[in-house]
Amino acid sequence: MENIDSDVLKKINSVHMFHYLKRDLASHMILYSNQVTKMSSTIGQVIRCKAAVAWEAGKPLVIEEVEVAPPQKMEVRVKIHFTSLCHTDVYFWEAKGQNPLFPRILGHEAGGVVESVGEGVTDLAPGDHVLPVFTGECKECAHCKSEESNMCDLLRINTDRGVMIHDGKSRFSINGKPIFHFVGTSTFSEYTVVHVGCLAKINPLAPLEKVCVLSCGISTGLGATLNVAKPKKGSSVAIFGLGAVGLAAAEGARIAGASRIIGVDLNSNRFELAKKFGVTEFVNPKDYNKPVQEVIAEMTNGGVDRSVECTGHIDAMISAFECVHDGWGVAVLVGVPHKDAVFKTSPLNFLNEKTLKGTFYGNYKPRSDIPAVVEQYMNKELELEKFLTHEVPFSEINKAFDLMLKGEGLRCIIRMDA
Ligand code: NAD
Ligand code: ZN
User: Fold this and answer.
1) Centre of ligand 2 from the C-alpha of residue 381, in Å
2) Domain named Alcohol dehydrogenase-like C-terminal: which ranges (predicted)?
3) What's the rounded Cα separation, in Å, for the pair 398 and 409?
4) What is residue 317's DSSP assignment?
């Protein structure tokens, strides 16, 4: 326990959290040491646990008992404590605009604790608190070495792959029949196996039921604004799509000091909620009989300085680009499009010096950057609570899908122990 104690105390110092009550620390340490003791008995063994399996496109997930194989070379087995649902899971579950791959264990926004590590893993150990991330960081390729990219050669997102890269096999099975992985994370399972490069090691004092949303949506939106759109203080920013990702992009605009944040959504129910995130004006494209880019150009004397698209719909992507000001406007695409979507715009828009960019995961490198985003939450610079609108036990995971499909709330936390 000596090492663990000093590690935790170091973290406390680093985030100036002396106000943590001794009692909290003591109870945390007891919980933590129980986890380590309990877990050590499963190292090297196949674990049988519950997972929500998507057997067919669009059919409710079924909680099944699955076998989870031990982690292989450069892999880590993680006990998931909390997971949440992002719209990307829903797209691949519906498989309307994406390649179908079933049976599959979806899920990519989560927080968990390392149960065991495979050969070659040196920077994670049982008991470490981690956030799995759908795109990875090998730390060795040209992208990982570049300050400008998070598109790791080895571990960048591949939505069509359902197996581990080490041996092309799945670590999940039911009675010997393999079940496919999803974006290298598959967090709708009590235990999952993830490549070490797709795990961000975070402050063990950070509450996993909250910071789990930094594993995808919130970091994506925040980074899309802060790292890619980079609005200047006093500028105007349009956000297309006011789900959790879009509102995190709005939060980024607020942090950057934007003076006008224009929220665009087809669902007017989102507008009330969005006020809490600093969105100052609202546009529902359905209320106008002209393209929304024209509406925004009129509102802003020629266009916004920055726009961030967080809908996944091609029309919104095109509008988000065309609504930025000529000369300096920058649009950033975040939404995951239908696989056959084509972006069509006049090349004159580029000649007129509008810039179009896109991003995965807000350009954050999962292992190098995400621990600091967690600290932003711990230091109260970033509010996560306002994104967490619902909670369900794992046994009711399909309710989280219903809420997302109805457009209700932002993030639904799924508790694995309930
Ligand atoms: P969400 O469903 O909660 O929110 C999307 C919002 O967009 C909804 O409020 C919806 O009403 C609105 N919308 C849909 N079509 C629109 C249109 N044409 N014009 C205006 N508004 C429209 O989803 P979310 O979880 O916030 O995710 C948003 C998008 O970001 C999804 O496409 C998701 O797949 C994507 N995503 C991308 C990354 C990345 O790294 N690039 C990461 C996470 C999520
Ligand atoms: Zn890499």
Assistant:
1) 29
2) 244-375
3) 15
4) H
The dihedral formed by the CA atoms of 59, 62, 68 and 74, expressed in degrees to the nearest 10: 40
Q: How far apart are the first and last CA of the chain?
A: 29
Query: Which atom belonging to ligand 1 lies closest to the Cα atom of 246?
Result: 26
- Ligand 1 centroid–CA 337 distance in Å is 10
Beta strands, E only, 234-273: 236-240, 260-264
Pairs from 36-45 (Cβ < 8 Å, separation ≥ 24): 36/4, 36/126, 36/127, 39/79, 39/113, 39/115, 39/116, 39/126, 39/127, 40/126, 42/115, 42/116, 43/70, 43/115, 43/116, 43/126, 44/70, 44/116, 45/70
Q: Which whole number is the average pLDDT over 209-229?
A: 97
* Cα 366 from Cα 134, distance rounded (Å): 9
The pLDDT tens digits for 284-313 are: 999 999 999 999 999 999 999 999 999 999
Q: Tokens 């040209």 identify what position? A: 142
